[in-house]
Amino acid sequence: MTQTKILVVVKDTEAGNAYVSALSEIGVICDVAHSFEQMSAMAGENAYNGLLLDILTLVRCSKEEKAIAYECINLFPVLRVKWEARHRKIKLSPLEQSFSPDSDSVLRFFIETRCKSFPARSLRKHNRKPINLHLLYCVGDTFSETESERSFTINLSVGGLFLHTMKSLQRGERIWLRFPEFADQAPIVATVCWSQQWGVTRCIPGVGLQFEAMTEKQEEEIRRILNLSYIPPTF
Q1: What is the pTM of this model?
Q2: What is the pLDDT of residues 141-194, one digit of tens each?
Q3: Which CATH number fits domain 5-115: 3.40.50.2300, 3.30.565.10, 1.10.3210.10, 1.10.260.40?
């Protein structure tokens, strides 16, 4: 059985040691990033089941780092915590305290119910932009009226997108997409990389998709929407 792995983001060394110790006590392995830039680099090279964010590190970081932080918050299960050096105790964010004031039980609950059920993943290679496009998706490439589903994108990149859906789609499952506003209506093939089910986390339910096959015209259209230059394929 694969062990749960958490990425801890904390600038203060003493706080970081306290978080690592608390995770180790419940059998969780972790890495520590001392900034959100370092977090982005580490999560691009390694796969994690969730993030443990130090509240003070988040509050005191730069505007640029906050942008990185909040994008990642939508991609992983996240627990916000604070180290009280005076009392040598881990405290929870006000949101988490509304569920339970006991940090130990909340940390275990976070790992057991949110992280262990979340497939370990790394950050995407292409930056996604929050763009909403209407689309049709289908588990087959026929796109009949009875088989296709209507939905929309939450974000988009040249490498994939986040699709809002209430359906349970499995990691590795292949689906076909069609954007009604595209000139080229050929189905785009995509693979499910990860999923967020309704009611499991406080995030938008849906699936992260990686594009597998599309035409040059479709890639050019996506790049136009993203305001990116089109790079023709080389052979």
Answers
A1: 0.58
A2: 777 777 889 999 988 988 889 899 998 888 789 999 999 999 999 999 999 877
A3: 3.40.50.2300
Residue 199 CB burial class (10 angstroms; 0-12, 13-18, ≥19) = exposed
**Per-residue CA distances from 79 to 41, 124, 207, 218 (Å):** 20, 21, 21, 38
Q: Which residues pair with 192 in a beta bridge?
A: 209
What CATH architecture does domain 134-226 belong to?
Beta Barrel (2.40)
Measuring CA to CA, which residue among 194, 189, 222 is closest to residue 208? 194
CB 100 within 8 A of CB 106: yes
DSSP SS3 for 71: helix
Average pLDDT over residues 123-130: 71
Strands (E), 97-173: 134-138, 149-156, 160-164
